[in-house]
Structure formats: C-alpha cells, structure tokens
Amino acid sequence: MLTECKISVAKTAGFCFGVDRAVKIVYNKLDNRNDVVTLGPIIHNRSVVADLEARGCKAVELDEIGEGQTVIIRSHGVPRSVYKKLEELGTEIVDATCPFVERIQLKALEKTQQGMTVLIAGDVTHPEVEGIRGFCENESYVFAGPGELEELLGRIGSDVRLCVLSQTTYNKLLWEQCREVLAKLRPDAEVYDTICNATAQRQAEAEQLSQHADLMIIAGGRNSSNTHKLVQVCSRYCRTIHVETADELKEALKGEDLTRARSIGISAGASTPAYIIEEVQQAMSEMLNNVEEFNFAEEMEKTLKKIHKGMKVEGIVTAIDANGEVSVDIGTKHTGYIKPEELTDDPSKKPQDIVAVGDTIALIVLQTSDEKGIVELSKKRVDAALGLEKIAAAKEEGTVLNGTVSAVVKGGLIVTSNGVRVFIPASQAVPRGGNLDDMLKKTVDFKVIEVNEARQKAVGSIRAVEREAREAAKAKFFESAQPGDVIVGEVKSITDYGVFVDLGGVDGLVRRMDLSWKRVKHPSDIVSVGDKLEVRIKDIDTETGKVSLTAKKDSDNPWEVFKNNYEVGQAVKVKVVSLTSFGAFAQIIDGIDGLIHISQLADRRVDNVADVLAVGDEVDVKITEIDYDKKRISLSIRALLPADDEADYE
Questions:
Q1: Which of 102, 128, 479, 543 is catalytic?
Q2: Domains of the chain: total
Q3: Considering only CA atoms, which of 179, 79, 163, 152 is closest in space to residue 116?
C-alpha cells in the first residue's frame, strides 16, 4: 500500500518583486510596440524568454542593438558604461533593473567615490555582479565564499578602506560566515547586508520544508543563481532535485522509490512563473497516484468489510432522485443513500448544487440495515469534521482562511469556513468603535487563533490578517522608499501641528509649516480626513519608523516667484499683515512678507507704529534690501517720499 504523502508548496516560491516588476514592464511595452528588445534575457527563465520572443521581443547583446530601438534593461542591471553606449545609439532606454539591485549599484558608486575599495560576495560571472562592478569608480573584487574572502583580505593592504556588499541572491548561511571572517580580520570594514529580503525568506522557508521532507523539488532556470542556492540549501537535509519544467520531473525521479514518501516539498526560484510551479505540483500528484497498483484481492475484501455507525467512507454518486435524495456506491454490498438534510446546512442550495453523478465524496455512516442492505450516510457531518481538521491545520501553519460572515452574535461574529462555524470576537473583528452589523454577509479573510477539537469549536481573528498585511506593506515601504520620492497618500488624522498621511502600511507626518508655502493657521483649513494628498518624502528614520513629509512643491515656492519678478529699488504696493513695536510686516505676494522698519514709516519721527499704519492697510513701498539666505526683505515708505520733505531723526 502507498503511504499517504503530503505535498507542500513553499509560500515564497516563484516571482519576487523585482522579477515580477521587470516582466510586467516588458509585457506592457509590447502592448503597443514591435521594436522592443531586452538587453540579455530579462530574467533567468527560458519559458518566459521564449514567450517574449514569440511575441516579438528578442533578447539581444549590446552589439546587436540598432539605432532608434526601445531597449529594456533586464532585472539584473548593467554597468554604467552600457547606459552611455545606449544613449550614443539614440535608443529609448527602459530601465527594469530591480530596485534592490539598483540600491547596491548606487552604494558601490557612492563608496568608491569616497575612495573605498568594494568587495562583493557572489558569482563573478553573474550579470548582477558585473553590473554592480560597472558602477565602481576604482578597484573592486568578487569572492564566492569565506575561504576566498580570507585569501583576498590577505592580499589587500590594511590601509585600504573597504566596503563589503553581496549579490542579492547570495546564500544567507555563507554570508554569515563571511561576516565572521570580516569581524576577525577587518573589523573596520563597512559591511552592508544587501541580500534581498525575499531571497532570505525563500531560502529560510525552503530550508524549513527540507528538514521535514523526504524529497524536495526545486523549479527554476538552469542559469538562475537563486535557484541554485535553493538546491544547495535543501540538499543539506534531504534528497533534492532541480527541474526547469514539469516535463523533466519523470526523468529526474526515474528509479526513485516514492512508496514510502510521507512528505514532498516544492519551492522555486525568483524567476519561476506561477504556472510552472502549479504544473510541477500537478505532475508530482499524478505520479504519486500512479505508484499504487491495483490489488484485486484487496478490492474484494472491501466489498465484504463490516460497515458500522460513525465509520468514514468514500462513495461515488450514482443518482439524485426528484426528492433530492442521493444514491451512493460505497464499494460494499450495501446501497448507500443521503437524505437532502444530510447534504448541507445551507437552505439556499439544492442537492444538484452540491454533488453530481460521478462525484467521489467523503461520507460518514449514520446507521445501517444488513437485512435491507442499505446504509444511511451524511456528507455535511464529514464535511464539518474535515473542515475542522483544515481549521486546526490552518492554526498550526498560520494559514489565512476565507469565509462568509453568517451571523452577528453577542460579543462578535460567526464566520462559516470549510463547513465550520468560526467565532470572531468583536475585538478581533473590527477596530474600536466599529459596527459589527456592517460585516454581515461579507466575505472576509481571517486567521485561526484557537481550536477546541473536542467541542468542535474554533476562534479566529480578522484583524490579525489586517495587521500582517500592514506589517508586510510597511516592510515593503521601508525596503524601497527613498527621500525625494513623491507619493499620493490619504489624510488619516489632523492635529494642531500637522497631518498624518497613510502611505500604504506606514503613516508619515506633514508638519503644518510643510503643508503649504502660504501661512497656515490650522491644518484643517486646507485638508480634511480622507483627502488624497501628494507628498514628497523628506526623511526616513528606519530605527523609529518615522517618516517626514512635505506637501510643498518646489515649483510653487514663493521665493522663486519673488526672485523672478522683484528686485532692490522696485516700488510695489503691499498689504500690512501685522504690527510690532519696531515696525510693520507687509505681504508682497502670497507667502512673502517684508519688514517696514519704524524708521522707514514716514518723513518724521514715529513713536508708535499704530499711529501711522493699521492691519489691512495697502501702501506703496520701495524694496531697499533682499537677503535670500536669511529670507528677509526690507521695505520703505520713506524712500518714496520727496527728499526735501524729510524730517530730522536725530
């Protein structure tokens, strides 16, 4: 008999953010163009590259590119010299370099410009590493592991300032070993962990799967670096095979004894499309199903086996009568039937909505009659039992489940999922002050936080899923966001000192002074909660998680407007906006005020500013001084008066 075998697919398998972004860029460009090429394969996956070529987008080398073509830079990036060459050819450059790779390139450029030597952990022949080295303005070296690093450090003088980076797909375990070597031999080196977070997570999950698996299957391109790293990681714990497509699976497993396998794990490199992973999983399932040979004697024994109440059986639907009763062949001498009320608890569904002739379904025996040769069965009860098993498994694995809110009860909600009624406490369903009634009949995602199998009850949390989604969005934001980025967010709350803007998992603060170039008495005067607001990132503090924003646009800077339209000696009309003991401030244009000193108010001595001017007065003045550094402008009424009318100010 074939041992029951579980196939587990890693959640992190397949396209990472950078690869997914690059592939989408190419397909979007192809929608309306026929002159698009990629500089080298856009990703390391032959199926994707072949599909693009079939659509008219070829992968070419630099010397094959003609003038005027649209050239897409692949996700691995290229050296700076390549950009220059493409510009000389007059091509349209579309840069699909992974943002995480681009960050390493810029770090290499920055550090070499500071006179440092860059060391890179990775494969010296990999396009990503070649691209990073192409951003270095002086010497750079590549090492494959801790041994090569130690040898390299012995050749580099101790007076050479070092910056150490890694290929995004570098092996996490090897990187930690390299860091130990650096801490021992060159503790002064600047070390940056530039392994992509998605790569680290993919390797960690594959490692965990392989520790409990009898066999691991890694799907991905033969020339994919991160795929090879997965094979290396998993090979330490169990038999591991590498395939590019499902078609290779049968040959790769030739001679393997799958009859004793209890657990098979599947993961895939960052360049592997979802459909290939699904095909590998399907092919593996079919191979397992074909392993067990038909045993005639065993099948005969099944027809004679004793059926008893509470027993779980499988049956094939043979008929559905006019009353909704379902006839089932359970492989014994008995005739099985299911009453309509034992099919489902959902009154809106007919028997034909649930089963069809030929379906194989799981059932539980309610009662038997050997005299009549019949057995009464229930589908809904086994569904509930199986559903509870799925619920319990979801709790253990931390899986997100989906269900429909079927009732609002005291203290929370009831969500039906996999035939099980799951209780969601109010505190785990909606934010404080939220309305539970608004959730009724909605489909929701939730996580199971408690299961009592003896009482067949489960407790879930909707907000746990929302929290995880926020944390994931937050992590993604801090991985990619940079000062200077422009983002459209939503005003979440307003305070006296500014507004908080939701940037998608992260809240940023726009202080009152950064809301507008104009004077703002209170933030609520110009924005409201729920408004969409375009902001620019001023600063990011990854340690505290604080993000400073500004809504000011350089193009609206009133000082630029003033500089282009006004000069010293010019006469202008201004409006008095405030009075002080030493003079009056007057608005020249929106956002720009100048000072009329008390000595410049009149052609006579003035002891009290209010004797001459009042807030709101419009007067003619002369611009006598402009200090752009200190943002100060001096104005004078007196300078416009006739010289012979001046009074004595001594």
A1: 128
A2: 7
A3: 163
